[in-house]
Specification:
alpha/beta; Rossmann fold; seven-stranded mixed beta sheet; 291 residues
Length: 291
Amino acid sequence: MGAMTHTLVSAWTKARRTLEAAGVELPVFDARLLLEAATGVARLDILTDPHRPIAEDAAARLDALVARRAAREPVAYILGKKAFYAIDFAVGPAVLTPRPDTEMVVEAALAALPVDAPARVLDLGVGSGAILLSILSARPLASGIGVDASPEALVFAESNAAALGLTPRVVMHHGDWGAGVEGPFDLIVSNPPYIPTGDIPGLAPEVSVHEPRLALDGGADGLAAYRRLWPDVARLLKPGGRFCVEIGIGQGPDVSALARAAGLEVEAIKPDLAGIARVVLGRRPPAVAAG
């Protein structure tokens, strides 16, 4: 573009066209986020002062960010953050980008936890910490443990806990699901990997190329993680304790059967915003007094 003056609106338009041509799903939205990141302006500035000139170095920064997005790198990794449950979580290629669907896990968990009572919460496969830290943010008397097999993911979980002032109430633990964890817990949450191995190459490149395979790959039938998870959940929940676990499309019956086989009660399967069964809710049966 040479010496031509860039404005907020011209830079936004150019970015949007590049992303549209690359087949990006939300070109207008992503172009705005990248423009904000490159120039340091707020959304309001773009709308109220669209013809504000932007500096040459900011335009060059924007071009570099747009090129990364056009190559289908997820926008959350480019920006280094993703909003989830109204909180900004730091993310990077070591962690799964939190999805809006997963907010259903948080909502179900909060429904199971009274505001005014202490509770112990366990998140198996904590990733960025989005689920566990959202719960602890909304339940000031609760404390939690987050477990992840990826040391890189735990760096993000710990920094997100610190940014939210939750470090005193949470322990992040490097481990293999519930192995070595001491119960009992009032609530266990998990968003385990549930995509069948053979389906991963067919996913959008944002996911198949950029997201951590450890957080996606559910084995040949997509159910490998649940076979590991449910016995740990049954062992670590207190009698009457609740669980909220995310599932993939169509996995409700199989995942529920595995939970029941581990001695758990499945109470409901909640749909996500698209109406797809997404969260399995239930409890460890309360102890029955000897008659």
